[in-house]
Design brief:
Elements lengths: L1 E5 L6 H9 L20 H12 L7 E5 L6 H14 L4 E5 L5 H4 L4 H12 L4 H8 L9 H15 L4 E6 L10 H11 L7 E7 L6
Parallel strand pairs: 1-2, 2-5, 3-4, 4-5
């Protein structure tokens, strides 16, 4: 079961000014984004925090959908900062059409796996063992995601949170976004060692 929230568009002049002043080249860690201003989007942030703290295994994905410019990336950056401060095992990937790298899923699985390793070195042996398999380059996206991320977490009985921002900005010219969405949907039936906060515009496939 996917927890979905569709937000209404409430433009903030203060946020817009902060965003305009932040002329930073996008990267997959979302350095181009700013967190929520104090006292804003409190209901959305509270709903996400409540979901992340739930002990039930029924809802591994929280999907935040809204139109362009509504502050989804701001919320994602805010939660990334909060979960980092709380010391949770966190990985993140912010898609953006501004660069070829941030549109692509080519490095998605390794980026997520390396982020988790940086927070828990015990994850490194199973991740590297899978990455060094002779036929690694022949695996599908979902096989790489399961082998680099899901399986190591399950082996070590570790819970983790993954933030994926702007799913709609992931390139789908060669079916990359389809592969990513299929891999995420596949997690609904597995042991949710990994909780996923994802954002995007409410497009048909998302």
């Amino acid at each position: 079961m996917v927890r979905t929230v569709i937000k209404r568009n409430h433009p903030s002049s203060l946020y817009s000014l902060a965003h305009q002043l932040r002329k930073v080249l996008p990267n997959v860690y979302g350095v181009q984004h700013v967190p929520c201003l104090s006292g804003t989007r409190t209901k959305t942030l509270a709903a996400i925090s409540k979901w992340a703290d739930e002990e039930t295994k029924a809802r591994p994905i929280f999907l935040l959908l809204d139109v362009a410019g509504s502050g989804k990336s701001t919320v994602a950056k805010h939660m990334a900062n909060q979960w980092t401060r709380e010391g949770r095992l966190l990985a993140r990937f912010f898609f953006s059409r501004d660069t070829k790298t941030t549109m692509s899923t080519d490095d998605f699985c390794l980026t997520v796996a390396n982020a988790l390793i940086s927070r828990d070195p015990e994850l490194k042996p199973p991740v590297k063992a899978f990455e060094e398999l002779p036929d690694f380059g022949l695996f599908s996206f979902e096989e790489k995601f399961n082998g680099l991320v899901i399986s190591p977490l399950e082996k070590l009985n570790r819970d983790a949170i993954l933030i994926i921002d702007a799913l709609d900005e992931c390139d789908n010219e060669n079916g990359s976004r389809d592969e990513l969405l299929n891999a995420l949907c596949g997690q609904q039936a597995s042991t949710p060692r990994l909780r996923i906060l994802a954002t995007g515009r409410p497009e048909f496939d998302i």
